[in-house]
Amino acid sequence: MEPISLVHASLGERELAAVAEVFASGWPAGQGPKGKALEAQLAQKYGVGDAVAVSNCGAALHLAVLALGVGPGDEVIVADYGFPAPAQAVRYVDAVPVFADVRPDTYTIDPQAVADLITERTVGVIAVDTVGLPADYTELQEICDRHGLFLVEDAACAVGATYQGRQAGALAEIGCLSFHGRKGASSGEGGALLARDPKIGKDVRLRSSFGIGSIFDMGNVVGLPVPTFTEIGYNFKLSDIAAAILQVQLGRIDELTERRTAFARQYSELLADEELLTLPTVPQDRTHAWQTYMVTLDASVDRAAVAAELRGQGIGCGHGTFAAHVQPVFETTQKCPVSADLFQRQLSVPMHAELKPNQVERVVTALRSAVRTHSSSTRVLGGAA
Ligand SMILES: *Cc1c(COP(=O)(O)O)cnc(C)c1O
């Protein structure tokens, strides 16, 4: 039977045509005409002070903590459940990631857990829009304001989502986006940092480019300006090839998000009666970008056996995402029981805009059969039937 992949980026003829334009222009590197146009498009779409195109979301998070002045010994509270890039970014600057547990229903950072973790060394919070669902920014902002902390939104998975009528990515003073091939809008690898304060944007753009301005611009002015290096920067620039692809992808976000939302709805309807599964919930005040559709298996179900059975039928699946505090690299003794439990029991199933309704039906049938076969619960009468 035809395989059904977990992920499939929606890249086509229009993106190819945009790349061809870059080839013809002779400027494939970063901060050229396409990069600048993408940044203007992002700043306008999100209504922010500045948008900086960067090589990936990990780089955006790194530049965010640098711009916010996070340094050795500072504590930054990070969402525990999700790809552990925020905690890594905190470590890049020798600061201390402090892991906050998540809500059991939305899997996003629990504002009460954040409030409980604040110490005199806490300088800020990095919330994650877990697999595309925005966190509780009203409550988080209130806590951060009360304690004088910064708030960063890791919206890597959330391009296309909304919270209280506002776009994910623009829900905090800094938002970090990912355009990795597994996210809703993609250029293969790519990212952006959205900043309300243009001063932050300026700082980030300089640090993303070895601490000097655009090489493209330098070649296009009259005279011979020789740049001065005044601080250590990095090369985190996004190429103009990727920027051209993203200009097309940005125009398609609504359509691609609608398609994934329809498949999420189909999964949720077809699986609603399956008692061995808990399905994702979306609070009334926000919408999901559906970067991933994760089900939570009953504790009686052998997840590895279910995954092997699905993969045996050509159906892509995965463990969902990560609990950060259990990763050996972070050497923490903290406990985040909700996140740890989700990390054991969640399973991601195929979710992308190129799915077909009959493929979703096939996944549902296979998943339902597999969880029943591999449950040790006596509640499931009929078992493997
Ligand atoms: C994917 C992801 C990242 C990393 O994005 P890259 O663009 O691959 O660096 C960061 N944070 C979260 C929550 C992610 O899901």
From TrEMBL:
InterPro entries: DegT/StrS_aminotransferase (IPR000653), PyrdxlP-dep_Trfase (IPR015424), PyrdxlP-dep_Trfase_major (IPR015421), PyrdxlP-dep_Trfase_small (IPR015422)
Cofactor(s) in the UniProt record: pyridoxal 5'-phosphate
Active site: 183 (proton acceptor)
GO molecular function, one term: pyridoxal phosphate binding
A UniProt-annotated Pfam family: DegT_DnrJ_EryC1
GO-annotated biological processes: polysaccharide biosynthetic process
Modified residues (N6-(pyridoxal phosphate)lysine): 183
Keywords in alphabetical order: Aminotransferase, Pyridoxal phosphate, Transferase
Similarity annotation: Belongs to the DegT/DnrJ/EryC1 family. L-glutamine:2-deoxy-scyllo-inosose/scyllo-inosose aminotransferase subfamily.
Protein name: Pyridoxal phosphate-dependent aminotransferase
Source organism per UniProt: Streptomyces yokosukanensis
